[in-house]
Design a protein that fits this description.
The complex is a heterodimer.
Chain A lengths: L3 E10 L2 E11 L4 E5 L6 H9 L6 E6 L2 E2 L10 E4 L11 H11 L4 H15 L14 H13 L5 E5 L7 H18 L2 E6 L2 H7 L2 E6 L2 E6 L1 H6 L4 H6 L6 E9 L4 E5 L7 E4 L10 E6 L5 E3 L6 E10 L3 E8 L4 E7 L9 E5 L6 E3 L12 H22 L1
Parallel strand pairs in A: 3-8, 3-9, 6-7, 7-8
Antiparallel strand pairs in A: 1-2, 1-4, 4-5, 9-10, 11-12, 11-14, 12-13, 14-20, 15-19, 16-17, 16-19, 17-18
Chain B lengths: L1 H28 L2 H4 L14 H9 L2 H32 L5 H10 L5 H14 L7 H4 L7 H12 L3 H9 L4 H12 L1 H17 L2 H6 L8 H6 L9 H27 L10
Helix pairs in contact in B: 1-14, 3-14, 4-8, 4-11, 11-14
Classes of the chains: A alpha+beta, B mainly alpha.
The complex binds adenosine-5'-triphosphate and magnesium ion.
Adenosine-5'-triphosphate binds next to strand 2 and helix 1 of chain A.
């Protein structure tokens, strides 16, 4: 077991800079997801850690040891590939034992380790079968088993669930979480599925065009996004944005105004902002928008579409300034297409971003703050437990 | 009706193909009197099985057979090994000028053997290999463009992640070739092996040019010895030809079953 430190990692394909200076400090035993849109460099980053790609700069340290110059096999890392990459001509037992036998592990020990991994993954009855004779979920297990038997310092998983159907994906997700708990080994998990990243991970790395947009716990990303990219990428439906101007208003306060806003919004921040000139963006999540009466409202607009999901209604609104917003109202909210509605943006739920798209850290309410802190410390405690 | 027609056409075509073989066969077992009879005898009344044995002992065919066997076995091993290794190189390694070299390799398929004949003779002469079996064996250890092409295509259908997984498992490039790709391309290897076997087995021009002593002759050369200046021993030619057909037939029989058996090939991804 070991943590991973990545310093200034650079990767180019020809002239294309795919990774632009990645810095990460992943703790021992942590489950970390790489999350980001297609093409942002998740797979490339993972493969660079594995040693399957030569890097153009920076370095990777695993368990205190620089590994960037080592060949993949010497790094003590196991990888689970998206398409499983099982050896088609070998049965499951051989698939699991291949790496061990290459490394000269004695036969008896190989058998013990393979049977142990098979038991953990419940594939003991499948050991004699060829990959072709397995279902998708079973293949997935074998692929994970191949990683387990090697007892590596670090697990890398590249979208391991993306080839499974929705039901199986949920099952395997839970199994992966249990496996991580059981093995206590550091795992890095690539996905473009937010739900997977949020539910499985201790912390999530959000990547944007080859850079780390934010590295934090799932709740941090959701409640305290550091920039516009993370704010709009995390959460579904997406956060709504509005062009505004900002001015400092007393201690740790920011007053937000715009021609389109019926009234100013005063947002409480963690620190007093230094420079608030220039254009700003106000962000508010759909479920934080309240449909109210005119005297409380910040803006108004026309309902274009109401999607009734049962527990909630997603109300698509064209604001008077032409922007499209989505608000989430209760399932039985009477809003109907064509209605004119009034929207309220509660100050404590507003995010504010400067011209460069950087967020002003806002003051979180006590409940949210304690939840985030708990998520952070939960991991810390688990880690100490493992170390004993 | 259509069915009857289809069957009729198929039977007719099959007959057309089988006829020469049948003719060779009955020629081999005919008695001398029936051999030259006119109109030709399609159904010999006096089947002389001993013709095979007589023909075999008219010349040292056991020596020829040994020579042929050495050439065929040794060169097939070399061909399978070298072509698959070269194919692996072209399929999985990135090096400068790879594609150009590959095109050049493919272009060599265009050069007819007749053109290479004289330079090859000079080359082997310089090496002192004339009148040995080496010119018939050694070139097979330097791969054959068509087989390289075939096997490279085959390797390229295997996802690169399988190589990478093996690499993560600690396999080096050689082990990936030997333990992953070689077993995976078994069906293609059987095909290549069969092709090469047939070429080497039936090769006449090569042995004719490179071999002088009768003790070095292969079966095809021995067969041609029946064609004398003044008379041709038709019965013996037919008899040996029939015998020569047996090994390829057996090979084909097994190879075909192997190639048809899809259990080994494909099915890499789910
Ligand atoms: N071998 C390669 N040669 C050239 N460009 C590449 C290569 N591999 C990846 N790229 C480019 O690098 C960028 C990042 O690719 P990468 O596969 O890391 O994205 P990703 O985040 O994993 O995307 P996805 O979610 O679609 O898997 C893309 O623009 C891609 O086109
Ligand atoms: Mg990817």
């Amino acid at each position: 077991m070991a943590g991973v430190q990545i310093d200034g990692l650079e990767k180019k394909f020809g002239n294309l800079r795919v990774l632009k200076g990645i810095d990460l400090d992943i703790r021992d035993g942590e489950f970390v997801s790489f999350l980001g849109p297609s093409g942002c460099g998740k797979t490339t980053l993972l493969r660079s850690i594995a040693g399957l790609e030569d890097i153009n700069g920076g370095q990777v340290v695993l368990g205190g040891q620089p590994i960037s110059k080592l060949p993949p096999a010497k790094r003590d890392i196991a990888m689970v590939f998206q398409n499983y990459a099982l050896y088609p001509h070998m049965n499951v037992y051989k698939n699991l034992s291949f790496g061990l036998s290459l490394n000269g592990v004695p036969k008896a020990e190989i058998e013990e380790r393979v049977l142990n991994a098979a038991r953990i993954l419940q594939i003991t009855e499948l050991l004699k079968r060829r990959p072709k004779q397995l279902s998708g979920g079973q293949r997935q297990r074998v692929a994970i088993g191949r990683a387990i038997v090697r007892d590596p310092k670090l697990f890398l998983l590249d979208e391991p669930l993306s080839n499974l159907d929705a039901g199986l994906r949920v099952t395997m997700r839970v199994e992966l979480a249990n496996l991580h708990k059981r093995l206590g080994v550091t795992m890095i998990y690539v996905t473009h599925d937010q739900v997977e990243a949020m539910t499985l991970s201790d912390r999530v790395v959000v990547l944007d065009q080859g850079k780390v947009a934010q590295f934090g716990t799932p709740l941090e990303l959701f409640y305290a996004p550091q920039n516009l990219f993370v704010a709009s990428f995390i959460g579904s439906p997406k956060m709504n944005f509005l062009d505004v101007a900002a001015q400092a208003a007393g201690d740790k306060q920011l007053k937000v105004s715009a021609d389109d806003l019926f009234r100013d919004i005063t947002i409480a921040l963690e620190t007093s902002p230094a420079n608030v000139a220039g254009p700003h963006k106000l962000g508010i999540r759909p479920d934080n928008i309240e449909l109210v009466t005119q005297d409380e409202a910040h803006m108004s607009g026309q309902v274009m579409l109401v999607e009734r999901l049962g527990t909630e209604s997603q109300v698509h609104i064209r604001l008077d300034n032409g922007e499209d917003f989505v608000a989430i109202a209760r399932g039985t909210h009477p809003a109907a297409t064509g209605d004119h509605v009034f929207l309220k943006f509660p100050a404590q739920h507003c995010h504010i971003f400067n011209g460069e798209g950087q967020a002003y850290p806002r003051e979180l309410d006590a409940e949210t703050r304690s939840l985030i802190d708990r998520q952070k410390s939960l991991h810390g405690a688990a880690q100490k437990g493992e170390e004993k | 009706m259509l069915r009857a027609f289809t069957y009729g056409a198929l039977i007719f075509l099959s007959a057309m193909f089988i006829l020469p073989f049948y003719w060779t066969f009955i020629t081999a077992v005919k008695s001398v009197s029936e051999l030259y009879q006119y109109p030709p005898v399609f159904w010999p009344s006096d089947v002389q099985w001993e013709n095979f044995i007589t023909a075999w002992f008219k010349q040292p065919f056991d020596v020829y057979f040994k020579n042929s066997a050495i050439v065929v076995v040794m060169s097939t091993i070399g061909q399978l090994f070298s072509s698959s290794l070269v194919a692996y190189g072209f399929a999985r390694f990135h090096f400068k000028g790879r594609d150009v070299i590959f095109i050049i390799l493919l272009a060599t398929m265009m050069i007819p053997w007749d053109v290479k004949m004289i330079p090859l003779y000079m080359e082997f002469n310089m090496l002192g290999w004339i009148n040995t079996l080496k010119p018939l064996i050694v070139p097979a250890y330097f791969a054959e463009a068509f087989f390289v092409f075939l096997l490279r295509q085959y390797i390229m259908t295997v996802p690169i992640e399988i190589d990478e997984a093996a690499r993560m498992d600690g396999a080096n490039s050689w082990q990936i070739y030997w333990r992953i790709h070689l077993p995976l391309m078994m069906p293609a290897l059987v095909l290549v092996g069969t092709f090469h076997f047939m070429n080497a087995w039936n090769d006449y021009l090569g042995p004719l040019i490179f071999l002088n002593d009768q003790s070095k002759y292969t079966l095809t050369l021995g067969l041609s010895m029946f064609k004398g200046l003044h008379e041709t021993d038709i019965t013996s030619i037919a008899a040996i030809t029939v015998l020569l057909c047996i090994p390829p037939l057996i090979l084909f029989f097994f190879a075909q079953r192997y190639i048809m058996d899809g259990a080994i090939g494909s099915s890499v991804k789910g």
